[in-house]
Amino acid sequence: MAHNNSFEKLVYAYESGSLIVHNAVAVEIEPERSGLIYQTITSAFMFPTSGEARIQLDQEVFHAKPGKLIYIPYTANIKISVLSEEKYSYINLFHQFPQRPLFEMDLSKDFDEVYELLTGLVASCKSAKTKKLFQKNIQIKKLFALLQAQTTSPQMDDYKVVKDLITYIDAHYHQDITLDKLASIANMKKSQISYLFKKYTNKRPIDYLIQHRIRKALELLETTDLLICEVAGEVGYQDPFYFSRLFKKYTGISPTTLRSQMKI
Q1: Which CATH class is domain 6-151?
Q2: pTM score, whole prediction
Q3: Is the Cβ–Cβ distance between 46 and 69 less than 8 Å?
Q4: 25, 92, 131, 256: which has the highest count of C-beta atoms within 10 A?
Q5: 93 near 14, Cβ under 8 Å?
């Protein structure tokens, strides 16, 4: 099964903080243990490092060998059958992700570099030292950048458009931002921008902008003594009453009530 746009969604989830890698583990399966069946309890990227195996995930079958990446979703019934005379070895990158895609990728072009990053990750995950945890985060970032470079599909161009627009919104949220403005920046139709935003973020551009502004407003209300009307202006709203209505809609509490509770 090809990766289509499943990997692009995983990359976005990682960069937005909703996909967090929590462990990297090296596993070996001897040929005599072939046919092992179990149900996964968390999602994982499986990177075969030696040997070959037949991986059955529910009804889908994959041929695992070095240079491949196989995505393992949570709560999948998995059967691993070793095909080679030698043991089948792989590294699992465990993480939490709410969706259940099934796909594989060819990493043969950069397998040596991927393998070096993975072995470093396994070592970092075994240590609780702060330095090792920092190294782990750097290694994961490099790994995702390398994996992303493997995909040259039109979907990745679409993903980059959304990523660049999000970067723009994050930096200019206090300014007047409209769908027309975003379409002009991306040199695309407004309907295309709305479609791509929904595809990769599950939000409309205006919803992302509002939620980002509300997060910034919440920070200002909690960390400064700015008046509510001043906070509204700082995050891009000239009408403080409209700002207050939006704030309550998205947080369940008005700015005035929040400030009152903070003084108690």
Answers
A1: mainly beta
A2: 0.58
A3: yes
A4: 92
A5: no
Q: What is the Cα–Cα distance from 27 to 21, expressed in whole angstroms?
A: 17
How big is the chain by its Cα radius of gyration, in Å?
A: 23
Residue with tokens 């979907």: 155
Write out pLDDT tens, residues 78-131: 999 999 889 999 999 998 887 777 788 888 878 888 899 899 888 888 776 655
The per-residue DSSP string of the chain comes to: ---TTHHHHHHHHHHTTSSEEEEEEEEEE-GGGTTEEEE-SSEEEEEEEES-EEEEETTEEEEE-TTEEEEE-TT-EEEEEE-SSSPEEEEEEEEE-SS----EEE-GGGHHHHHHHHHHHHHHHT---HHHHHHHHHHHHHHHHHHHHH--SHHHHHHHHHHHHHHHHHHHTTS---HHHHHHHHTS-HHHHHHHHHHHHSS-HHHHHHHHHHHHHHHHHHH----HHHHHHHTT-S-HHHHHHHHHHHHSS-HHHHHHHHH-
